[in-house]
Amino acid sequence: MTKFALVGALSALMTLTATATAEDKMSGTYANDPTHTSVTWKIGHLGLSNYTARFTNLSATLNYDNSNPAASSVKATINPASVETDYPFPENTDFDAEIRGSQFFDVAKYAEITFDSTGLDLTDEKNGTLTGNITFHGVTKPVNFNVTLNGAMEEHPYAKKPALGFSAEGTIKRSDFGEGGQIEHRVQCDGPFVGQIGRAKGLVKPDLPC
After folding, report:
1. Which one, of 28, 26, 133, 138, lies nearest residue 80 by Cα?
2. Top CATH class, 10-200
3. By the 8 A CB rule, do 150 and 166 touch?
4. What is the model's pLDDT at position 15?
5. Contact indicator for 52, 27 with CB cutoff of 8 Å
6. For position 201, what pLDDT does the model report?
7. Per-residue b/e over 33-71, b at no fewer than 16 CB within 10 Å?
8. DSSP secondary structure string, the chain?
9. In terms of C-beta distances under 8 Å and separation of at least 24 residues, what long-range contacts does 136-144 make, across chains too?
10. Beta carbons of 54 and 189 less than 8 angstroms apart
11. 160 band by pLDDT with thresholds 50, 70 and 90
12. Whole-model pTM?
């Protein structure tokens, strides 16, 4: 069986976009900071290595319930045309263009990859399983992600808003989405989330420093 592993870990800082109550400063709607959010995926190569590439265009929102985290939900959208493979010989092959093409992502026909969560099963205070539906290559299928709360703060030092950081990891199979071949995709995402309302009001810079 050919392995095309999409291993994913999503680590993201999220800042509040809506006003929280005085009693609960953390609950509300959060959005990602694109500068510090990344989505990477890996392809198993002949059982010898894992070739790694990434998506650079991602938007995500989290509705977080601090009193009942299991009731929280997340939505994410990836632009598959933003794939970057860092192929070492671009003068010979435009590998990014090949991946965007009809043999693989077919971005001219399928312009988005989306994820909508449907549930969160907590295993402890910081870990759980996030379930949801991913739409990729025009097909929607359920998927599970292992999620970890990396950290939380009531006031991010730059955004001046509550912030949350997460990692998520999961696997999908290409053949489930009509791409052919018994190939597994493993995706890895890392990055921060920043308040959209604050940014619109000029309170938060779109690109936060590290």
Report:
1. 138
2. mainly beta
3. yes
4. 55
5. no
6. 30
7. bbebbbbbbbbbeeeeeeeebbbeebebbbbbebeebee
8. ---------EEEEEEE-SPPPSS-SS-EEEEE-GGG-EEEEEEEETTTEEEEEEE--EEEEEEE-TT-GGG-EEEEEE-GGGEE---S-TTT--HHHHHHSTTTT-TTT---EEEEEEEEEESSSSEEEEEEEEEETTEEEEEEEEEEEEEEESS-TTT-S-EEEEEEEEEEEGGGGTS-SS-EEEEEEE-----HHHHHTTSS-SS---
9. 136/110, 136/172, 136/177, 137/105, 137/106, 137/110, 137/177, 137/178, 137/179, 138/109, 138/110, 138/177, 138/178, 139/176, 139/177, 139/178, 141/172, 141/176, 141/177, 142/118, 143/115, 143/170, 143/172, 144/170
10. no
11. confident
12. 0.81
Residue appearing with tokens 């549930």: 119
Cα–Cα dist 170/108, whole Å: 26
